[in-house]
Amino acid sequence: GQKCNLAGQWKNDLGSEMTIDTVFKNGTFLGKYLTAVSSTNKTIVLSPLIGYQQLTDLPSFGFTVKWLFSNSITVFTGQCFLNTSGQRVLQTSWLLRSETQDPQNNWSQTRLGYNIFYPL
Ligand SMILES: CC(=O)N1C(=O)N[C@@H]2[C@H](CCCCC(=O)O)SC[C@@H]21
């Protein structure tokens, strides 16, 4: 059985909220991401995500968010754990890739971070 499924609503310490809709039998899932922070000055809007999780007890996963308010993409990867109280926790790393018109700026367009998500 699946101890730590990704389906449901999640929040991280930045205050961003994520909803993972149905996890299909092959581990694919769809969802939505409402970020609380942005590297742009654009108005933040709910953005779609697509991902895969393994179908093990404490699954590894990956997903991609296509931001609808900025020309950038974030890819997340991580694993689902249970804390000592049996609560699900998502330990993640991410890469935020921004777009630049000038290839000379390519070196500076990828941000890396780590973040933990808790069930909402
Ligand atoms: C979980 C976490 O750390 N993050 C989160 O919840 N929001 C920020 C970034 C939002 C990017 C918005 C689009 C843009 O600024 O181009 S994705 C990684 C980071």
Rg over CA atoms, rounded to whole Å, is 15 Å
Total helical segments: 0
Major sheet attributes: 8 strands, antiparallel, barrel
Strand order of the largest sheet: 1-2-3-4-5-6-7-8
| Residues in β-strands, percent | over 45%
Shape: elongated
Query: What fraction, in percent, of the residue positions are helical?
Result: under 10%
Class of secondary structure makeup: mainly beta
For the terminal residues, how far apart are their CA atoms?
Answer: 22 Å
Bound molecules: ligand NVZ
* Uncertain spans: none
- Total count of strands: 8
User: Could you state the oligomeric state of the chains shown?
Assistant: single chain
The string of secondary-structure elements, in order, is EEEEEEEE
